[in-house]
Amino acid sequence: MGESKRLEAGVTRTDREMSDGRTIRYYDTQGHARSAADKRPIEEQPGIGELRLDPLVNEWVAMAAHRQGRIFLPPKELCPLCPTHSDLLTEIPESDYEVVVFDNRSPSLRPPVGDWALPDLVGPDTDTGTSAGKCEVICFTPDHGQSFKDLSPERVRVLLEAWQDRIRELSQKKFIEHIAPFENRGEEIGVTISHPHGQIYAYSYLPPRVEKMLRVAREYKESTGHVLFDDVVAREIRDEIRIIARNSEWIAFVPYASRYPYEIHVAPLRPVADLAELSPRAADAYPEIALEVMKRLDGVFGIEMAYIAAWHQAPVRVGRDLLRLHWQITSVRRAPGKLKYLAGSESAMGAFIMDMRPEQSAEQLRAVKLEK
Fold this sequence. Notes:
The protein is α+β, with helices and mostly antiparallel strands.
């Protein structure tokens, strides 16, 4: 059996080494002994990619050409995220699991060798760097046909514990500057494996949206003395009309200037910088509101909505007092059979145009009848 570690909420983490040297981490509540070996032949892992600067906007772009050959929409019987069974040897050697996290087989970012630093910014003459970072896959359930909304509250709590554990550990790596757990669902937004799972990207630089949010939050704090996101949540509570769910620790709302037909932000009422700072009380209250929000989203049209659900949090080393943890869920579905495409204005100019007022989508989400 691999090395084990006790976490909160009765969760035990057990680490095992995969055949090619990657690490798989099992998060369990039922006392399972994780001893199954990865019996697949050893495959050579891809090397680290390039990091190039777009000097027109000073944004880093990771070049990961090896990802062109990654698996694409395999049938259930060949799914690499299902447990190993009979002749199918998958990424998870065990025959069953609760939540697992493993290093991505085709990562966009990977740990560097030796000392590492971003190249100095000198416009078009900026040196090419290496795309340092870490990419992990997190599987929510062994059940191939399920979605996040189908998970039990207990399983969502284990999932949150796994997210928190990964934030704590990845934050210790010197080359990591920002960590973003996210889930993609639906072919419409580019999912390549339909098994319920998410990813954790740990960047060696601040992504553009984080840089912008940090800059705006710093300017707001300097001019008002307040934390911007705290005031945003306070306005939503005051206006009330865009709130779709709430419990003792969390609030879910459609933002005042949403960019997508259905966009939901879920935030703790006691603000924290990142997932690792959530109190046990807030963590225990998360499954209730998370499942309600996802069920309301699917209930709008009675169909599974394609979405991106991403955790926004403060960077690892800067802005810890300026940026707040929140979960952003965005769907491009605007009606059954119709999507919002990011066309000229959105994709080329970055200027979003909404065909629906946020108050309308909030009303639709609140009106969904949930099964008891």
